[in-house]
Structure formats: C-alpha cells, structure tokens
Amino acid sequence: MAAFGLARNSCGLINGLRVSYRSLVQVKYGAKSACLLQTNIQSDCRWYSVSHLSVKERIEKKRKAAQMGGGQKRIDAQHQRGKLTARERVELLLDPESFVETDMFVEHRCSDFGMEQDANKFPGDSVVTGRGRINGRLVYVFSQDFTVFGGSLSGAHAQKICKIMDQALTVGAPVIGLNDSGGARIQEGVESLAGYADIFLDTSYLFITGPDVVKSVTNEDVTQEELGGAKTHTAVSGVAHRAFENDVEALLYLRDFFNFLPLSNQDPAPIRECQDPSDRLVKSLDTVVPFESTKAYDMLDIIHAVLDEGDFFEIMPTYAKNIVVGFARMNGRTVGIVGNQPKVASGCLDINSSVKGARFVRFCDAFNIPIITFVDVPGFLPGTAQEYGGIIRHGAKLLFAFAEATVPKITIITRKAYGGAYDVMSSKHLRGDMNYAWPTAEVAVMGAKGAVQIIFRGKENQAEAEAEYVEKFANPFPAAVRGFVDDIIEPATTRKRICRDLEVLASKKQVNPWKKHANIPL
Amino acid sequence: WTFLTGVSVTMHACTHTHTLTRTHAPHTHTHCSYGLFSSSQTFDKILIANRGEIACRVIKTCKKMGIQTVAVHSDVDSNVHVKMADEAVCVGPAPTSKSYLNMDAIMDAIRLTGAQAVHPGYGFLSENKDFAKRLAAVGVTFIGPDTHAIQAMGDKIESKLIAKAAKVNTIPGFDGVVKTAEDAVKIAQQIGYPVMIKASAGGGGKGMRIAWNDEETREGFRFSSQEAASSFGDDRLLIEKYIDNPRHIEIQVLADKHGNVLWLNERECSIQRRNQKVVEEAPSMFLDADTRRVMGEQAVQLAKAVKYSSAGTVEFLVDSKKNFYFLEMNTRLQVEHPVTECITGLDLVEQMIRIAKGYQLQQKQEDIPINGWAIESRVYAEDPFKSFGLPSIGRLSQYQEPLKLSHVRVDSGIEEGSDINIYYDPMISKLVTYGATRAEALARMEDALDNYVIRGVTHNIPLLREIITHPRFVSGDISTNFLPEVYPEGFKGHHLDEDRCRELLASAAALHVTSQLYSHKILGTQSDLMLCYRVSSAPMDQNNWELCVELGQELHDIEISKSGNSYIFMNGLCLSLQVKVDGGQVEVCGDWNLASPLLPLTINGTCRMLQCLSKESSGNIVLQYMGTLFKVRVLSKLTAKLNSYMPEKVSEDTSSILRSPMPGTVVAMSVKPGDTVADGQEICVIEAMKMQNSLTAVKQAKVKSVHCQPGETVGEGDLLVELE
C-alpha cells in the first residue's frame, strides 16, 4: 500500500482534501440533478442500444456518446459556469495526444428510481479515467464529469477510480484527481470513498455540511463562499494548498508543479537540466538583512535569489504566512524550502505555521526531497489563544517532522534563531546535515532586551547589560564555537554552498529505528 | 600607457565587476603621460563629503593618484562608496540635513581622520561658501574654487552683473527690487515680451513665471515676490527676456590658481524634465566652431573676472539663431562631466585635485581636443510613465551594468542588493557611451540600455531609449521643451509598429516553446538504472506548435516549427525557430538560457537584446523589448480555446486601502491626509513582537484619510489608511 498512499499524497498536496461524501445537502443535490436528467436526456439523445446496428457501429456510437458526457446542453452549462468539462481538463493537463483512457464503456448498475432506463445510462458514467504524460512523465488521472449526474459518485464511478489507482500502484506512478462532484448519488447507497478536490476560485466550494445544515444546527448565517470557498480554504482553514483564478490556470500550474515531484516514493527527487550556474554568487544577499535587527525583510527575496532561475512553487501562500514553504530546484534537483517570514508577524512560529511547516517537511521526507531551511525566528507566539490552542502540541509536530526526516537537511540561519523555535527549525540537534549561519545570525535563548530584563530584574544600568548581552550573544559565534553551526558563511556564497552540499548528500543514507509507525503528536 | 588609458581605468567607476574593456577612445593626443600626473605630489588623504556615484567617482581618481580616501555616510547609507574608501565615518542619521549637510559632523570627521583636503562632489556642500571658509580656517584644502568665486556666482543678480562687466552676453533684463506691479510691467515692456519673472535667490526653476503680456506680468510679480519673501527671505526679483524654445548648452572651464583658464568645449544638456537634465552629450550638434570659440572665450573671461580656480561650468541659453545668453555659473564638478572627459581625454577630478594643491595647468587651449562624441543617459529609479519620472524606491534585487560592451562607461554608486530609498537622489547611474561619431555613440547607447539589467525598482530606461532613438533627437532638433513637445500626452512607452509587434510576438512564442522543451529535460539518475527501463518518461519529439499569443486585448495565432539544426550546449539550447505570425514569417534564433535575465536573439537576421522579467506557469510573460515592458500571454491553441470559457478576472482594488496585516502597535505614521505618497513609500510602521513592520503604498496616490495614531494598538485587518 505504500505506493498507493504515495500516489494519493502526491496529488493530495495540491488537491489537498479528502472529502467524505456523506452530507445531507449533497444527497439532496444529487436527487435534484437526477430528476432533471430524467426529463431532459430522454428527449435529447436517443442513442441507446439499438439492435439493428453492428457491434462495430455500436462501439463507435458508445465511444462518441462517452465523449459527450452528459450531452451538449450540460457541457454548455458547465462552460457558462466558467468551468471546463472533465475531458477538457484532462486534455489540458496532459501532454498532447498522450491520454490513454480506460473504462469508457462502464455504466452504472443502479436499478432503482428509474435509473435502470437506458436514457439514464452514460458510457463511462460520471468520471473519466486513464493514464497519460505530463512533460513526458507517466501519470494516472481521473476527472469527475459534472455533466453526468452532477459528477456524483456511483459504484461504477468509484470502481473506475480504484482501478487506475491499483494500476498506478503496480507501476509506481502518481494519480491526479480532478474533482468536480455534487457528492454521492442518492439513488445508490454507495460506500463512502476518499477523494480529492481541486479547488478553484469563485466556482468551487468544499464543506462537510452545507450552509442550510449549518443554519439549522448552529443557527449561523453563512454563504457557500464564506463557508467553503477558495478563500476560506486557502487562507483560513488551510484545507486547500493553493487557489487559482480558474480551471485553466490551475491545470497549467499543476503541470509545472508535477515536474518537481518524483513519480513515486521509491524514486529519487527528479533532476532537471539546469542552466543556472550552481556556483553563482548572489551579491544581493549580502545586504538583504537590514542593519536594525527589529526591521522586517522579505524571506522570499532570499529564496528567489538562491534558487535555480528564481523558480519557486509556493505551497499555501495565503495560509499562515509567517512561514513560507514550497518547492524549487537547486542545480536542477528538486528541493523543499522552509523559511520563516520576518515580514509577517515577525516570522514567529504559531499553531498554524507549525502545522503548515510540519506537513510540508513530512511530505518532502516521504518523497526523498531534500529540505532547505532558512531561519529567522524570534520564538513561538506567546498568549492565551496559542497556549489554549495547544501550541506545545502543534509546535512539537514541526520538531518531530524535522527530527524524523532522513532526507538531506541544510539549514541557513539568516538572523534570529531564538529559544525553542531555534531548535525546531531544523537545527543541528534535529540531525541537520549542514547548518550555516550568516554573519547577521543571532543564536540565543531570547532577544537581548528580554534576557536582560530577566537576568537583571530590578537592577540598574540595564542598558549596559543589554549591550553586553548583544555583544556576547547577538552574533553567530556562540553557536559556531559549540559546533551548532558548521560554518559562518558569506550570504553571497549561499547558493554555491547549498548546491555543493546537495551533491555530497545525494548519497546520504539514514535509517530510523524500526517502529510500526512514527508517533507524531497529532 | 597614454593618459587616456589611465582615464579609462578610472572611468570604470563603481562597479565590482572590473572588466577593463571599454572607452578606448581613439585619441592620438598624448600630451602628457599618466606617470607624469601621478608623480606630482598632491595630498596624502582626501575626504569626500558626498555619497553615491560621485563619491565613488572621486575615490577612483584618488586611488589612481595614490591618495588615501575617507568616505562619510549616514547611518542608512553604507553603500559602495563606503566600501571603496580606505576609511569611512558616519556623520549622522538618514536625512541629509543631519548627515551630508551636517558641517559640524563633517568637520569632526576631517579632524578624526586627518584628511588634508575635501572634495565636495556636487550638491550638498559643494557650493557652500561657509563650508569652504570653515575648511580654510582649520587649514584644510577645499577642492573647488575659493569662497569669493562661490559667493559671487551663487547669487543670480551678482553673477549677472559680473558677467555683464566681463563682456559676457547676458539676457536683457532687470535685476533688483521691483516695487510695484506697474514697475514690473514697465520693465517688461522695455525688455520686450515674453519675459520671465523669478526670485533672485531662487534656483532650480523654483518661483519661475513666464509672462507674455502686461496682465501676466502683474500676476507673475505678485506670485514671485510673495514666494521670494516667504521661501528665500529675500524680496529681490529678476525680470528678464524669456527665450522661447531654447537650448541649454554649457561650457566646461578649468582654471588654476595662477590665472590660467581653459575652456573644455561644450555640453548639450537640452533634454530636461522639470528643469532636470536627462540626456547630455558633448559636443553639441548645434554649435559651429566659431560660436563654440566665442562661447568658450566668454566663459574664460567670466572665470578670470572672478579669479576662478578649479573646474567650473558656465551655462548658456542658446536660441534658434545661435544667440547665446549667460544663465549662471556652477562652481563645482557637474553631474554630466564624464562626457567632457570622454571627448577631451582629461580627468577632471584629477585636474581639480592638482589645481587645489596649487599646480599650474599643464595644457594650453590648443591642446584641448574634441575627439569623437559622448552621450550620457541618467538612469533613474523613477517611473517615466508618470510626468516623465516620479521617484520609485526599492531594493535592487538584480543589477547588471552593461560593462561587457566596449566604449561604455558607467558611473554608479550602487550594486546588486542596494536599497534606493526616499532620503536621497534616486539616480541609479550615469550611463555614458562614446564613439567616433554621434551615430556610433547613439548606437552604442541603444545597445547599452538594452543590456542594462535593473530589477526591483521601476526605472527610466524605457524613456531614455525612446529619447535617444527619436528622429528629432537623432537629427539634433532638440530644445529644453523636447519632452513635452514630443510627448504632449505624457510618455506612453515604445509604440510597436507592425514589424516590431510581430517580432515581439514571435520572440514570446519562441521563448514559450523553448521553456516547454526545457521542461521535458528531466534527467534520470545514473544510480537508478531501473528508471531507464521503466516507461516513466517519453522524449519530446514535437517539432511544430500551434500557439495563441495575447498582447493587450488582441489575440494572435502563431505557428512555430523548428528550422535547421538545433543543438544543445552545456548551458542552454541553441535553437532556431520559424514563426508564422499574423501571416508574416519571422525567424527567431537564440542561445536560450532561461536562467539569464538577458535574452539575446537574432530576429530575421538582426541581433536584438530582449529581457525576460517574468515567466509564469499560466503563460504570462513580461518582456522588455525596445526598452519598454510588454505583457504577453502565450497559450497553446487548445488552452486558448478553453481559456475563452473562463470568466473575466475582476480585480478587486485593494490598492487604496491599507489594513493592518497583523495585530500590533502603530509606532509611526508617516503620512497625513492630503499627502501624496509614492509607490513603495512607507505609510506607517506597526510594531509586533518587538519587530517593526513597515507598511508601504502600492501605488502613487493622495492620502484620503488616516484611521490610527502612533501608540494606538490595532488588530489584524483594521483599517489604517485610505488612499484616493
């Protein structure tokens, strides 16, 4: 099952959500669409099983019908909603002419509520499945067809998806799911099935229970968009990992994203030919950290400057913005980037950013993607909201994830690395392979002011003591003399150092002690 | 080593990529050797009381002359000049009045470092007689004219009187206190309309009014006298003939302390915006040898009349009939001095230092040549689409000067990673090109501008490139009104004609195809032989592409096919593509390196340097072509078809509302209602977790309302400031 899980995860990162198709609202919706279909389809297309046609002709007919999904009217309606059809999505996602479809002739097997009529049978049912290539690399795809019973899930539908998942597992290839479904088909008592959903701005909604149910249970007034729109899930709930303007943009970005990932968790991180010199000096990094240590700067400036071609695929860019995570390449090799963002909430770690970081680190570790961590963290966010919310438990997730990861781990401390947050951020103590400090680094228990207030509580000449503390600890030496950082490096050489280390660490082998599974503090 | 080669080293100014491959002017004058100059003992240590490119420029020459240098800087400005100097002293906080104009601090720095002389550069204290006096009092040499000349030329009325007495052509007019509006009208009538009225003590176009009749004169008198009294505390007025459509041409002079004065030919500085020069050149196309000589001689007479020593500039207005009138004299090194250096082969800073030490000039007037042609473009961090240039600020995330090209000199004081902030002049550099002829110099300028990589701030290269390629400029038909005349509606960027448009579309499409090919270049790892056997990856054997490119509102169908050989180098892909666009055929060849900001292409056999600013997965590409940025979107034909089903993007205007991005305390509010903020300017500072976060404007706008005060605690999403 390892490869299976992998396949799901590899798309899960962008698609993010496992939906349990069990809600009342969705059931209601499914019923509605079924009624509609019964009336419309019968009159529109009378193509079903006709005995005077030869087998060959019938094959052709069925194929043609499958291409049309729920019929032109429904396709037009889908377009009017600003959405693409299942087939259009597949065509856009995959390399031209690479799609090999499976189960085009599968039909649903429901015989209740008039569903057994031929008019209510659609070849392929409400999902398109098969395999194809993205930039030449193998991928399995399923794409739910909203034009057929609202993309609702039937037994046949689920079976089709399971089939390609099983195939993907046997060859070690990923599965991408393009979800567009109203939910379970009411006419069938379907087993619930885990799925994945892409989420598109303004046209997509995800919720366990819809606004009507929310209103009746908790008396909250909420719109579809507020409850489960793209903004909610990318900025508030963290359920979706990225939102895009529309279907086309999402699929184009997905193609590029796919290039960062290995085909399976048994494959090494992919290496793309690199035109950006691995020994390129990045002069602008020498001045990126401001003189005043309280002044903010944009960690993305550093990240973009260091990477191959400045190409950074950020994950969850609008959620917990005090931590930045995403994929990039160093000398052609895919790497995962984790960085504190001093621009937002001073780059502190809080519940959401810890969870966001932890999930990403585990993803990288699962798929053999080296992790590069940029540290400028003033500490964990204090306060009752955080403590009551369980910051200790959630912060531990990030710590656990870094500690557990056996992929190459390179850490660069750009400025602050204070207290417990320092430890958490892929420190030497969590088996960091190479840990560097910039000359601006300050590895300490806390900021000078706070420290002095505690050490010299109630005493005079605090300013003097503060200056002494700064002199002693607000620099990279205390950490360097203890070997907590391997070297103090000129910022301009950061790219060169990382690329060189990654080459060496490519053969890194580290095995965690055997256990049934790790016990991350969930 | 001829003298000239020596200069060419100096001219490298302040970059850190020292490739000594430029400005080898074909000068045959070898009047004196480099060695001879440096053998003359001048000073051991010079303090440069300035910043930025001019500080770097002076330090360069000092280094060449074996002189130790001291830089001064404010506490936010430890830029290139600080790194270049042997010593550096911080003279105060960011505002210039507290640092670079802070005489006490600079005098302390001199004492501290034991500098024997001070080079003031331009601006700041360069024409401040009190500063020169204070230096003299402690026995430190001021590298510039003596206080008498500074004072005499610093006052518009006095300088004009002296000029008149020295038989220099002056603009007919009146100077002194004008009592009433009717007096002003009388004077104006005597001079003849149009007239210009301005405050005697003002400068830089401030308080200047032009009157074409009696009524306007009365009005002008009222405004200017008020302004004179309030702004300058000096109610004298100047009424003089207004020269319509004038050229601004200036003569560089060089004088020693022994009464020898030379004129080093002219500089044409007519291309200006808001009375600030943008493009300068030497010599001027407009002057004939006789006019040049007469102007030069008059400039020398003026310098002699005030016992001038050091380098100075006499500015003239020249009308269409080559009548010239004295405007003012600048008693300092000018920003645009490099063009004079290029055509005369002299190092003006070196000359200034020698003169300050008391040496006699080594040249005679007949030794001063006009060799070739030099053009200077002032590259500014500003948005030329707004009144020909409103300052922009930011961090130079990427910066590459076009120094690989020959005959290019770049004087700059910044480097990659430098911050361009609100405290100082937003000039990025002075880009100077040189050629045997004007056409050659212009062609090189075009190349240099195309090869100049500036990212992180908005810059005026689009405008500069349009100016130097404009037919009127090329033919020499220019005046100080050039910009408003040529762009009456404001600057709008390069207008693409049909051919250029096709080239741009073809380039964008070719870039898209190249990056698609590149996306397929995933390498299998050697250790994993398994991968090679598994059908994990198929090669891309596509040779034809059907694309759709969106430029502005228009969609263009494009067909691309590989033509001839394409081969892959270690660093990039050499690819030749046949592009069919709008019925025309374009061939695009390039050694495509997608990591480089520069995109050198051969389009239909012509070499063109494009720049790629961004390329997104969504197909959006921003290209710099002919100096201007163009946004295009390249999609496959299928994608374009499907894209037409997508709803139009409705962009929400969040640019005029500033909300607090986090809970915190407002520590500073930098604006008040009615203020105008620039794009990127700080609006307020929020402190959260002992960290100060500066919130900036995302567009230039007027502040409508402010909803918080310093010291106030705000929550996330709280409205702070509204812009109009």
Automatic annotation (TrEMBL), chain A:
Signal peptide: none
Enzyme Commission (EC) number: 6.4.1.3
A molecular function (GO) term: propionyl-CoA carboxylase activity
Xref: InterPro entries: AccD/PCCB, AcCoA_carboxyl_beta, ClpP/crotonase-like_dom_sf, COA_CT_C, COA_CT_N
GO CC annotation, single: mitochondrion
Catalysed reaction equations from the record: propanoyl-CoA + hydrogencarbonate + ATP = (S)-methylmalonyl-CoA + ADP + phosphate + H(+); butanoyl-CoA + hydrogencarbonate + ATP = (2S)-ethylmalonyl-CoA + ADP + phosphate + H(+)
Gene3D superfamilies in the cross-refs: 2-enoyl-CoA Hydratase, Chain A, domain 1
Membrane-spanning residues: none
Domain CoA carboxyltransferase C-terminal intervals: 277-516
Ranges where the CoA carboxyltransferase N-terminal domain occurs: 52-200, 202-273
Pathway entry: Metabolic intermediate metabolism; propanoyl-CoA degradation; succinyl-CoA from propanoyl-CoA: step 1/3
Quaternary structure and partners: The holoenzyme is a dodecamer composed of 6 PCCA/alpha subunits and 6 PCCB/beta subunits.
Protein name per UniProt: Propionyl-CoA carboxylase beta chain, mitochondrial
Record gene name: PCCB
UniProtKB/TrEMBL annotation, chain B:
Pfam families according to UniProt: Biotin_carb_C, Biotin_carb_N, Biotin_lipoyl, CPSase_L_D2, PCC_BT
Gene Ontology cellular component list: mitochondrial matrix
Gene3D superfamilies: 2.40.50.100, 3.30.700.30, 3.40.50.20, ATP-grasp fold, A domain, ATP-grasp fold, B domain
EC number: 6.4.1.3
Subunit organization: The holoenzyme is a dodecamer composed of 6 PCCA/alpha subunits and 6 PCCB/beta subunits. Interacts (via the biotin carboxylation domain) with SIRT4. Interacts with SIRT3 and SIRT5.
Major place of residence: mitochondrion
Name used for this protein in its record: Propionyl-CoA carboxylase alpha chain, mitochondrial
ATP-grasp domain ranges (all copies): 162-357
Keyword Manganese: yes
Residues annotated as signal peptide: none
BP-aspect Gene Ontology terms: lipid catabolic process
Top-rank taxon, per record: Eukaryota
Gene: PCCA
Catalytic activity: butanoyl-CoA + hydrogencarbonate + ATP = (2S)-ethylmalonyl-CoA + ADP + phosphate + H(+); propanoyl-CoA + hydrogencarbonate + ATP = (S)-methylmalonyl-CoA + ADP + phosphate + H(+)
Species annotation: Nothobranchius furzeri
Pathway: Metabolic intermediate metabolism; propanoyl-CoA degradation; succinyl-CoA from propanoyl-CoA: step 1/3
Compartments in which it is found: Mitochondrion matrix
Known cofactor(s): biotin
Biotin carboxylation domain ranges (all copies): 42-488
NCBIfam families, per database record: PRK08591.1 (NF006367)
A GO molecular-function annotation: biotin binding
